Every structure is written in structure tokens, then in C-alpha cells.
Amino acid sequence: MNAGKGQHPASSARTLRTAIIDIGSNSIRLVAYSGARRAPAIIFNEKVMAGLGRSLSRDGRIDDKAFERGLAALDRFASLCSEMGMDDVSCVATAAVREAENGAAFVAEAEARGFSVRVLSGKEEANISGLGVLSSIPQADGIVADLGGGSLELVRVKGGKIGRATSLPLGVLRLADVRATGPKALEQHVKAVLKREGWSRNESGLPIYLVGGSWRNLARVDMVLSKHPLPVMHHHEIPLKSGRKLARVLAHLGPDKLAAIPDLSRSRIPTLGDAAALLSILIRRLEPSALIVSSSGLREGVLFEALPKSVRKQDPLLVAVEAEGAKYARFSTIGRLLDHWIDPLFADESRSAHRLRFAACLLSDVAWSANPSFRAEHGLEAALHGNWGGIDVTGRVVMGQALYTCYGGGTKAFEGIPDSVAAADIEQATRWGLAMRLAQRLSGGIASILQETQLTMTDECVALHLPHDKRGLYGEAVERRLRQLADAMGRDYAMRAD
């Protein structure tokens, strides 16, 4: 489907817009994207809990009510894609459609509405889910566990590549019927399926990357119960101890208390206990080192699969923050120049630290349009809660501290930093922020001033070098910020007109 292409021609003046329609066993979802190809921003997201796979284990069919509800969702999504002017719409279907006796009939109805439906095999679904995780966690080395309504995909990922990939009949909509046959029935069933497909403790000691709405909602429960100070879903780590006991915790809380948890999907509450029971079994059988939530999965995998290899290799964090920073640039985008200007002070940093510093510099203009009294908070918010891939919670916090300090938040750590973030990392981020703050004050956001000036550092002194004819730039505010930076670096300061 190329919805609306005739009415909304693509041009270099308009960012291409792409939509994915995911016909899953539990939900049907439309997600629309716009922006950089390597890290597009979500501009619309809607799901309908059609439950196409709810009756599969009983009679092998999509029941009539779910069938009609699914088609109604597709009617709406087709209209939305046309009105939004989507340049490209990809439609994929998973376990329920590929397994149901009347799955082909559902595909025919979808195609009558203008969609070209790609019915994924189990292996394809697993591979694409793995690609989705790699798109936002390029360094992932472990097992992707994508839990849908009809199936569970297990995928080995390492070195940016997909290894063994399997689709298992362990979707959340199938689990209740198994559990109903006896207290140990699910454990025995999962153990048998894993053994049959060759998944065993040979994979122990690896992180499991959790993909899918059921896992995300379990993570939301864990965040609330642990009072996590930074409730960002992507790359949230569920402690193994918590993962083991979530099933018991959910049973104790009950549906009413669960419904009161903010942002928890009420439509998933009836199956959360089943998902938690499965998670506990996977922990026992695969013995992972960690449970890491990935907000990227099948849909992002579809986008990533279509990218040229050269684009796939781009850093998703840097691409995203540079695109976001460019929206707010006052005069020109100087993030790269800013990073280069302050680099002499931090030349001994690790590659990973420099990457986060670079990302903060690319976002350095993000808060100028905010109310002056809240610029520090606005910069912090952008780093902590932005839709970034390729970054964990520590990375968000470090980048946030740099922007918080850059915008006048001071040299103390902001409130609510998780205990897992090292104090030394916060101190270094504060130094970045002070250096960025000096550059912003000196240059006023003008690239040419940074190009003509220089920072240097010796064991004794942080020096600001100005051309002789530009020494008038060195005002009281600049001197004050240079002094603050030098103090943080444990050195004296000087201005030198060369």
C-alpha cells in the first residue's frame, strides 16, 4: 500500500513518512514514523486489541468477533494512512494469521482495503524481531525473547548479527489453557518445547532482551513496585530476583490494584499473570545474566531490514539527537563544532564516554526556546526521556547531567539519579556541561566564533585563546564561566589574546 501518494507527493522539502501495520495475535497496531531513516521518530501510535489468536488453541480459527474487530481496525488505519500522506506503508501479519484456518480469508479482506500483507513465517518473525533489537541496541549480545499473543520468538544476537532463531507456540494467549490442566503443566510444557527446539542451559549467562507488550507491562509493574527513579522503558533492567517472583506479586495485587498503576495497559491485565509465569520459567531454564527491556521489536525490525547496510551502520543515538538538536538550533547546528572545541579538556576519555559527550553537544541548543527559569529542567528532560536508541539508563543520566549543568542547573547532581550510576560519571558530565556552558556564552551560538577561538589545558591551567582582534569577546560573564570550568578541572585559568 502506498497510501495517499498521489495527493502528497514526496519531495526533498518534506521528510518521508513511513507506517507499519502489525497484525498480531493479540493486537493490531499502526505506528507512523518520520525523520532520519536510521532513527525515525514515532509521530502516531495506536493499537486495537482485536484478539485474533484468542480462539486458536480451541478450534484453530480466528473467531467471528475478532475477525470483524480486526477488519474495523484496518478500515480506520487505511483512512489514517491516506490522510497522513504516508509515502510507504508496510503491513505484516504473524502467528494468528499464518496458523488460523481462516487466516487467508482475513488477508484477502485486508488486501481488499489496499494493504499488501506480508504473512511472516515463524523463522521470519524471529529474525525480524532480532533485527528490531539490534536496531536500537547494536551491541546486544544475548537472547531476544519476543512474546506475542500467538508465539514466543527466541533469537540469539551477537556482534550485530542474527544467530539461531526459533518461533515457539508459547504466545500469551495460549498459556492459560495450558496452566488450567495442572499446577506444573506450564513448566513441563515450556521445558519440553525448549528441549525440542534446542534451547537449554547451554545459553546460560547471557542477558535476555524482552520484547513485546506483555513484557513491557510487567516492567511497568516492576518500576512502580521498586519506585524506580527513572521509569524509562527502553533498556530498563528488571532484577532477576524480581522477575522470578512477579507471578506471585501479580496474584497478590489482583486486577483492581493493577488497574490503578499508571500507564499499565488494562487490556493486558488478564494475561499478565500468564506472562509472568512464563518469564519465571525462562529464568529457571535459560539462567540469564540480566533481563533487559527493548522497546524496539518486530516493527522496528521491518524498518531496519529495509535499510542499506551503510545506513544500518550509523549510530542510532547520534543520528537521533543530531536530528532533534537541529530543530532547535538558534543560528546554525554547531553541535559537532562544540564537541571539537571542548575536546582538548577531555582528550583522555574512553570512546564510550566521548560518544555520550558528543550526543550531549548535539543536543546543546535543545532548551533555548524554553522559559529561562526552566531551561535546565528542559535540557534534562530532553536527555532523560527522549526517544533514543543505542543508550542505556546510565547514558541517559550522564547526558542529562551535562545538559542540566550547561543550562544553569549548577554543579550538583540533579535529583533522582539511580544508585547504579557512578558518582565519577556524574562529576565528569558536570565538567562537560560547564565547558559547553562556557562555549555557549562566549559564542552566543555563532559557529564562526568557535572556529576562531580555542581551549587548551595544561597541568596547571585552562586557557581560553582569542584572536587579538576578538579579545573584546572576553567579558565578565565569559570570565566567570571560564573560572567555574577551571575550578571543576582543578586548575587555574587564563585568557590569552594570540
Q: What oligomeric assembly is this protein in?
A: single chain
For the record, the CATH architecture of the largest domain stands as Orthogonal Bundle
Radius of gyration: 26 Å
* Largest sheet properties: 6 strands, mixed
Using the alpha-carbon principal axes, give the shape.
elongated
- For the record, the count of structural domains works out to 3
User: What is the count of helical runs?
Assistant: 20
So, the CATH homologous superfamily of the largest domain? Hypothetical protein af1432
- Broad CATH class of the largest domain: Mainly Alpha
Strand content: 15-25%
> Widest sheet: strand order?
8-7-6-9-11-10
Structural class: alpha/beta
Architecture overview:
With 498 residues, this protein is an alpha/beta fold. It has 20 helices and 14 strands. It folds into 3 domains: 17-119, ATPase, nucleotide binding domain (Nucleotidyltransferase, domain 5), CATH 3.30.420.40; 123-299, Exopolyphosphatase. Domain 2 (Nucleotidyltransferase, domain 5), CATH 3.30.420.150; 315-497, Orthogonal Bundle (Hypothetical protein af1432). The protein has helices spanning 56-59, 64-84, 95-99, 103-112, 122-136, 172-179, 185-196, 213-226, 240-259, 269-286, 298-305, 309-312, 316-327, 335-342, 351-362, 375-385, 393-406, 423-443, 447-452, 476-489; strands at residues 17-23, 28-34, 41-48, 88-93, 117-119, 142-147, 152-158, 161-168, 208-211, 237-238, 291-293, 454-457, 461-466, 492-497. Strands 8-7-6-9-11-10 form a 6-stranded mixed sheet, with helices on both faces. Strands 3-2-1-4-5 form a 5-stranded mixed sheet, sandwiched between helices. Strands 12-13-14 form a 3-stranded mixed sheet. α8 crosses α10 (269-286), α13 runs parallel beside α15 and α14 (335-342) packs across α15. The radius of gyration is 26 Å and the shape is elongated.
